[in-house]
Amino acid sequence: MGAYLLLAALGLAVGSFLNVCIHRLPIGESVVRPPSHCPGCARVIRWYENVPVVSYLALRARCRGCGTRISAIYPLVEVATAALFVGTYTLFGFGPLLLPRLLFGCAMIVLLVTDLQHRILPNVITIPGTLAGFLFSFTAPPGWIDSLIGVAAGAGILLGIAWTYVRLRHEEGLGMGDVKMLAMIGAFLGWKLMLLTLVLSSFVGSVIGISLMASGRGGMKYALPFGTFLAFGALVAAVYGDRLLVWYLGFY
Asked: How far apart are CA 52 and CA 125, in angstroms?
């Protein structure tokens, strides 16, 4: 029980830092300086106003200085990161997959929210993340061969789709951020789970896109944040991927 509580507390603290990344990376700010401040009045946030989840509830979701509303994304990211830490430890224990899965999960949380809010997948996450995933593969699954194939196939598939779309429609359909993100997913998860991620994210994206069109809130050219769906699919694949593949292959 002590280990779970410690990991939950650590996850909340890391989630607070992920919120800084989510807010600052899309606008090109450093995640180190200046100190945390209110985006409305630029007032520096005191340490006791920056306690994960607790401060959000105590402040009633508003800045103590100017009353600017604090987005619910902040506590949601903190709770999600705490759940990530506890869940990853439950699945993998203190084994070789614990650290890479934690780093991968944190990166996916940041990419999921930044793409949802800003349609941006920061290179500072995807490019070093691809290298990190490949380096981890020398000491942990999926192994360096599957990881390398995952990188090449992940980037190659989306590059091919993007090139074909431009040739047929004469406009950009996928950004290079999606290409780099799927390469990173392939590096961490290997080519099999990368393909599963692509299938899951495409399915979820299609369902949401069709729902938006049916409700009149979007058309054929409505830009969906595909990186958000990739992150969701990758998190599912990282947890349930092997079992889903076994279940699917059982039909053949």
From this structure: 23
**In the chain, which residue ranges form alpha helices assigned H by DSSP?**
2-24, 54-58, 73-92, 98-118, 123-136, 144-169, 176-215, 226-249
Burial class (CB in 10 A: 0-12, 13-18, 19+), 229: buried
Reported as a single tens digit per residue, the pLDDT across 160-199 is 988 887 777 766 667 789 999 999 999 999 999 999 999 9
Section 69-96 average pLDDT = 94
Question: What's the Cα-to-Cα distance from 152 to each of 127, 165, 202, rounded to whole Å?
Answer: 13, 20, 19
Residues, the chain:
252
Question: pLDDT exceeding 70 applies to what percent of the chain?
Answer: 95
What CA–CA distance (Å, rounded) separates 161 from 166? Answer: 9
Q: Where are the domains of the chain?
A: 1-94, 119-252
The Cα 212–Cα 227 span in angstroms is 18
For residue 89, name the pLDDT band (cuts at 50, 70, 90): very high
146: pLDDT strictly greater than 80: yes
- How far out from the chain centre does Cα 75 lie? 16
Q: How many CB atoms lie within 10 A of CB 125?
A: 21
∠ Cα 127 83 211 (to 5°): 75
CA dist., res. 125 & res. 148, Å (int)? 18
| 3-state class (DSSP) for residue 7 | helix
Q: Which among 205, 249, 2 has a CA at the least distance from the CA of 112? A: 205
